[in-house]
Design a protein that fits this description.
There is one protein chain. The chain has strands at residues 16-23, 29-39, 46-56, 67-72, 82-89. The chain is mainly beta. The chain has one domain (16-89): Beta Barrel (OB fold (Dihydrolipoamide Acetyltransferase, E2P)). A 5-stranded mixed barrel has the order 1-2-3-5-4. It is globular and about 50 Å long.
Length: 94
Amino acid sequence: MTTQTETAPARVRRVTKVGRVVSNKMDKTVVVAVDYLKPHPLYRKIIRKTHKFHAHDADNACQIGDLVRIEETRPLSKTKRWLVVEIVERGEEV
């Protein structure tokens, strides 16, 4: 009698981004602003673009100004599609 060992499917590598926390007013949710540089389509000048993501922060550990790493996940609410993986750097206390 042969037995096959079931192997777990290989976990898909999820998209991660690094950005600054700009708001933590919601419960268990932070707004993370991710900046990136993109050339203008016609003039080719480099422009700084910012995109804001709502991320799940289960412990309410993030403060405004923190540099965090977020990871793509399943939809957690109407706007939350990201999860705070780690706090890379603490922001300055104001």
